[in-house]
Amino acid sequence: LAQWKLLRVIGKGAFGKVRVIQDKKGDYFALKYINKETCIARQSVVNVLRERAILAGLDHPLVARLYYAFQDADHLYFVSELLLGGDLRYHIVRFTFTEEAIRHWIAEIAAALAYVHTRGIVHRDVKPDNVLLDVEGHAKLADFNVSTQARPGNLPKSRSGSLLYMAPEVHRADEYDGMADYWSLGVTFYECIYGSRPFHGGDAKEVMNRVNSDKPAFPEVSPAVSRECVSALSALLQIEPRERLGSKPFAQHPFFSALSWNALETGTSDPIYKPAPKSFDVTWELEDLLLEGSPLDARR
Q1: Which residues does the annotation say bind ATP (predicted)?
Q2: Model confidence at 156, in pLDDT bands (50, 70, 90)?
Q3: CATH number of 5-82
């Protein structure tokens, strides 16, 4: 750590803190501390090592980047891209956004997921907490701590992720692939539009039953939600994975077709919403890992 200038703490999670650091050239990064003893006690070693391996193989402008990973006797350290625009949840619980602003975020995360899926990875925890904004307002996919490899003939079946964002096939513990992430993106999209999630329940079983049987409601609100937006939401929240938007390109859907997808996919588009400077000091909450073997610990 001697080569870094340690600055303010910006988060605290199950395994340690996250703080801003500065290198000798004056560039800023986020340093995540992972306490080895705590990690072992929580039986999370496999998750942490897998997250590091996955992040090391990813290089996309809309995926939060891992630059370095190292360790000492007590801690593992991840040095990552510093994204100080706050997480998406911070913004959607405080402000109301236009369809255009929300469309840009959802399209950017869809582009990030498309890239991640080409690498044979399922994120498994897409939700507003795990979408971070940079200072320009670009949405970046973060927190790969329950991500896993998904290859033909070797697909995951575990109930991993956050309970209210899990796809029907994940709830059922069926085999699944990247299409499960598009369901989670649909729940995130719905939450951005309506301010609530489409499915609720008193416990995991009730949520599973509703997700696998109910159709999402699209209430009348003011200002009215466009038909194209409702169509896109419905297309993402299809129970059958192969019928979901994502099995076909987003650019072909009327709600997304007007966007410049080349600019989106290269991170050169112009965001509709730019976070106010006060958001740059937001402390985002880092959550506990959901262990693959403990589905009842799913986060809500």
Answers
A1: 32
A2: very high
A3: 3.30.200.20
